[in-house]
Write a structure and sequence with these properties.
By secondary structure, the protein is α+β, with helices and mostly antiparallel strands. It has 13 helices and 14 strands. Strands 6, 7, 8, 9, 10, 11, 12, 13 and 14 form a nine-stranded mixed sheet that branches. It has a five-stranded mixed sheet with strand order 2-1-5-4-3, with helices on both faces. Its EC number is 6.3.1.2.
């Protein structure tokens, strides 16, 4: 704790947010004075926190006792001294400290998302490999609304008018919200978040911010914090920000494209041969994504809303075809220099938990490399019209069933994690099915 204590003193921190990520990506934990935080002999949280769904409900009673102890024991939270970040919007001088979850006996808690990513990274370390990732995160800015039945609308910008059409890559459209993004960039710099470019995406008031490539665990932490940062900046300016995968009808969905490459012990890119050509490792990584991604699909599309994004044939992938510089493919090899050769997984929505999405993508690629899995033929045309490759699941229920029945996912991610994650998401889905939609009221109420 010496490094952490010195950092807190150097930055005159008075208050600590001690947090972990749940399955959804919600920051859960405790807030306390910094002196109390340093004096604690390990912060504790009930293990049931990890099986709480996005609605606040828990899994069905019939499986509850299968996932946690019948005494609902506490987990011991240990701070990562390399995961300390200021909270720029707080009234007090505050720092957020990301923690890892352990049992009282000192074993990593299998259900904790950050532990899952560390488990996958250990597989790479065992081979002398180091994955490098770069996420691209899309989101919408919207007007505030206290009525969830009311469709989301673009907010009013500096001009006094909301966007009325699509403004892909428009500098002027992005500058409509310049004061907000000045705060986002300032706050990200203060927190040590390594963001790069800002892009106005296709949708009305839809934006994308790219992260610089780097270490997978650090960048998962950064995405986890970044989502909260954007929401806080939006609130400061009287609007909302949402990372839903498909928040607005007839508008493009929001994704989290994940660029990934793998370095050997000498820092060389194993996806490239010495002559600059593709290596077998690149093809096997693609093959692993194609073979196992459908069995881990809920990690990339974790919510009911996630699957609405795949209904569009214009702005989201519909299968796991792959190609070079082909944005219609779910798996794209960007046109780059040999040393920068990488794979872009375009499947994940912006609504993912970054720890789980990173873990899932890296695991699928790893399994492809260690098992020499060959990919399908590379396509050169539109992947939307590619009928030889299985389509992505169209609903959460189908995706959960595949994951639940996957022996590979149970063996690699852990039986307990798979069962807990599936049951939490299944409970959320059952909750969703009880809601009567506005479409049903509009078209069925007076006609059937």
């Amino acid at each position: 704790m010496q490094k952490l204590a010195a950092w807190l003193k150097e930055h005159n921190i008075n208050e600590i947010e001690a947090v972990i990520s749940d399955f959804t990506g919600i920051a859960r934990g405790k807030i306390m004075p910094s002196n109390k935080f340093l004096a604690e002999a390990g912060i504790r949280l009930p293990e049931s926190v990890l099986i709480q769904g996005v609605t606040g409900d828990y899994v069905d009673d019939s499986v509850y006792d299968d996932l946690i102890s019948n005494t609902e024991m506490d987990m011991v939270l240990k701070p990562d001294q390399d995961a300390i970040h200021k909270v720029p919007w707080a009234l007090e001088s505050t720092a957020l400290v990301i923690h890892d979850c352990y049992s009282k006996e000192g074993a990593p808690v299998e259900m904790a998302p950050r532990n899952l990513l560390k488990k996958v990274l250990a597989l790479y370390e065992g081979k002398g490999w180091r994955p490098v990732v770069a996420p691209e995160l899309e989101f919408y800015l919207t007007r505030p609304s206290d009525n969830p039945d009311y469709p989301l609308q673009p907010p009013v910008g500096r001009s006094g008018r909301p966007e009325s059409g699509r403004q892909s890559y428009s500098i002027d459209a992005a500058n409509e919200y310049d004061p907000l993004f000045e705060d986002v960039y300032d706050w990200c710099e203060e927190q040590g978040l390594d963001i790069d470019t800002l892009i106005h995406e296709e949708g009305a008031a839809q934006m994308e911010i790219n992260f610089r490539h780097g270490d997978a665990l650090s960048l998962a932490d950064q995405v986890f914090i970044f989502k909260r940062t954007v929401r806080e900046a939006a609130l400061k300016h009287g609007i909302n920000a949402t990372f839903m995968a498909k928040p607005i009808s007839h508008q493009p969905g929001s994704s989290m494209h994940l660029h990934q490459s793998v370095l050997d012990s000498k820092g060389g890119n194993i996806f490239t041969l010495s002559n600059g050509n593709d290596s077998k490792m690149l093809h096997h990584y693609v093959g692993g994504l194609q073979k196992y991604l459908l069995e881990s699909m809920p990690l990339f599309a974790p919510n009911v809303n996630s699957y609405r994004r795949f209904l569009s044939y214009t702005s989201a992938p519909v299968n796991l075809a792959w190609g070079i510089d082909n944005r219609t493919a779910g798996l794209r090899i960007p046109d780059s220099t040999p040393e920068n050769r990488r794979i872009e997984n375009r499947i994940a929505g912006a609504d993912v938990n970054p720890y789980l999405a990173f873990a899932g993508s890296l695991l699928c690629g790893y399994l492809g490399m260690v098992n020499d899995i060959e990919p399908s033929r590379m396509i050169s045309g539109s992947a939307y019209e590619e009928s030889s490759i299985e389509r992505l699941p169209l609903n959460l229920e189908e995706a959960l069933e595949r994951m639940e029945n996957s022996d590979v996912m149970k063996q690699t991610l852990g039986h307990l994690f798979v069962k807990a994650f599936v049951e939490v998401k299944r409970a959320e889905y059952q909750n969703f099915k009880q809601v009567i939609s506005s479409w049903e009221r509009e078209y069925l109420q007076l006609t059937v």
